[in-house]
Amino acid sequence: MPTLKIDGLDVTVDAGTSVLEAARFLGLEIPTLCHEDGLEAYGGCRLCVVEVGQGDKSRLVSSCTYPAEDGLAVRTNTKRVARTRKMLIELLVSLVPSSKVLQDLAAKFGAQKSRFKPKHEDCILCGLCVRMCKEQMMSGAIEFVGRGQKRRITTPFDKKSELCRTCGGCMYICPVCTLRCQGPNAPTTVCGSCLTLEPTCIDHYDDYMCYLGPTGVCGTCVSEKKHKGGESGGDKELCHTANTTQQQRR
Ligand code: SF4
Ligand code: SF4
Ligand code: FES
Fold this sequence. Notes:
This protein has 250 residues and is α+β, with helices and mostly antiparallel strands. The protein has three domains: 3-77, Ubiquitin-like (UB roll) (Roll); 83-120 and 180-249, no CATH class; 128-173, Alpha-Beta Plaits (2-Layer Sandwich). It contains eight helices and seven strands. Strands 2-1-5-3-4 form a five-stranded mixed β-sheet, sandwiched between helices. The protein is globular, with a radius of gyration of 21 Å.
């Protein structure tokens, strides 16, 4: 049974335990996205990043796939970890800005601005649906195909699979196809959890966006304007949403 140190706390765990499981046993919070209890660890999103080792020899690893080894020193919230985690969240949220799961992560970890252009993809290739289908639903109707930028999830030969029992397990677990933000004029009542009266800036600015909450409140666009030498008080002109909101309230 290996004994390791996580954030200065000693913990002894069963052989085969991951660093993530050991940290959770101690009550430490490490964000995850492609990990789900009951499914095999995949290590695809890297969001569960932690720092192992000391000094110059320390390195970043995915805690969900890294085994808890005897004598291992783990730090779950160093500046390096926080910086990497935030960058990963920015990247993920720019891939699918309408995902509430990703937007919630952005809000929780203080990512108010993304340095990546919004892509509006349908999938972040976390592989949860594939593992859910195979390991919990015992079906195996879907799989990864292709490599690199062509990598995607599909059924064999892109045809309706006879193995699929339409159980919905894959949709239930998908972090980007469940709880899609439908914007301020949602056509259905399915979503309603994160609707605000304010539209986001995403349609108006190419390279950054506001996350959650009334747009303009975060101040990102206002400080951008100041940064670019704009006049103070120019937020009315700059932030489309602030203007819209003010008009709605008049
Ligand atoms: S709906 Fe079909 S593809 Fe999705 S988990 Fe169920 S069996 Fe698998
Ligand atoms: S469809 Fe959803 S669950 Fe499946 S890999 Fe893509 S993002 Fe993950
Ligand atoms: S949760 Fe560990 S890599 Fe995704």
